[in-house]
What does this fold into?
Amino acid sequence: MKRKTVLVFILLMFLLISTACGNEQSSGNNHSEKGGERKIKIGHLAPENNVWHQSLLKFDEELKSRSNGRLSLDIYPNATLGNEADMFQQVQAGSLDMMIVTAAEMANYSDSFSAWFMPFILKDHEDSYKMAATDEALGLFDNINGVEGLGYYFAGMRHVLTKGNPITDIDDFKGASIRVTPSPAIVDFWEKVGAGPTPVPLPELYSAFQTNVVNVIDIDLDATIGNAYYEVGDQLTTMNHMVWASGVVINEALWADFSEEEQKIIKEALQVSIGFNKENNIEREESNLKAFKEQGGKVTELSNIKPFMKVAEEIHKKYGGQDDSIQTFIEKAKEIAE
It folds into this structure.
């Protein structure tokens, strides 16, 4: 009898412990029952002084305000949760709720995202944000499984940074080793320009630039100042050849789990933060350019844009011919830029 009592007691203890562990694990995703408080875990690669992070703080502020504190963000910057590929897979699997993911990473899952890397179709921030709100841009998310695309953030227009001698003409790129993000469309563009595109992970870029592994960088001003690349490269050529787009994505199943009211709140809060992202980017473009000059940097404009436009048209024709989504994106972008 005693033995049976002991066995029953052990079984009850095991059930209690299992239940407690299960509750602890279920609370680890920061979610609660519908209608209750819900904390949304979101990750990104950038440092806390970056425009992405500042935009997420605005997003969080709006979420809390519009939901009376029921909805909020739990933000993880600086690749705390892994590199971009790791985080994207976590969002698809549901172990991470949301992230900011570059178009370059999404192009690994859908070729259509190369649309954002068509050179010289969007001339400035105004064009870029108009494009981001179109069906042609938002429809790109439909080609990727496991996530819901809610919108886009940007991190500035792209320019080129070098050291010693400025880039003034297409011939100055001949034989140059230029750091690029390894997207086929980006690599194709720079190869046709005459440069040698060289992929270098962002954490290794400062030393690669310093030791001449690359002698030119395709970069935006926010990263130039934020990562102190100006300490190595003192020559900036403003090109505006491309904008750096990143999607704000959420796990598809989690999105479906939100009520219609909650989805509405999230979308509205995100739109406010996108407006903040735009204003912040425009302000930073000016302030970062000023900061670059104050650090002794010199700014140059291209003397002749026509040879670049000729190469750009070749890229548009090639990738638009391969993908209908890219072709319609190009057509809409050119319509906006007129």
